[in-house]
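WARN retry 2 of 3 for item q-0093 after timeout on previous attempt; input resubmitted unchanged.
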Amino acid sequence: MDGWIAFLRERSSDIGTALQEHITLTGISVLLGCMVAIPLGIALVYSRWNWLTNTVFFLANLMQTIPSLALLAIFIPFLGIGMKPAIVALFLYSIMPIMRNTYDGFRSVDNSVLEAARGMGYSTMQSILRIRLPLALPYIMSGIRITTIYIISWATLATLIGAGGLGRLIVGGLGVNKLELVVVGAVGAILLVLIADTLFGWLERMLTKRYGRTSSTTA
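OK item q-0093 returned
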């Protein structure tokens, strides 16, 4: 036990830096994914061209089939090594689950509710913001939660292209046969997943309770 305490004290700076890098990788990737996937999912709900919807989902699904390490390597010739190619690759991975859940959430809203909104004189944008979006929040938040968990796990591979993160501790520990580094990196990633899942779960309940009540009283 004393050995572990001494190790943590000795490597606290490296552990803190790796944790910060991991949070940065995950946070930026998921944020960019939300900024692209949520509006795109909403746009596809209102699209009149089924071929366009099918094409977008096909391309997003195709992106998910590319092995994460291969996708990271693809961007090295264009963006070099470091955080940039890692963020781009993780961002592309984040699009599909968020977009799918946004699309399904908007499609799940009962037509009678939408008819009532139209009868009250709601425009399309008002219907989106005051009816469909609040009712679709549980779906959207679920997509963001799942995506964040996946990205935290996948981000450990980003160290192989020089992006740092907790994977740097794991790879470094394997390279010098130091179990403590491997354990700290793995446990750190697990704790990040648990913390993110708890925070997004709390946020989902809060937003659903607040805006769900608002949309129901409005409709």
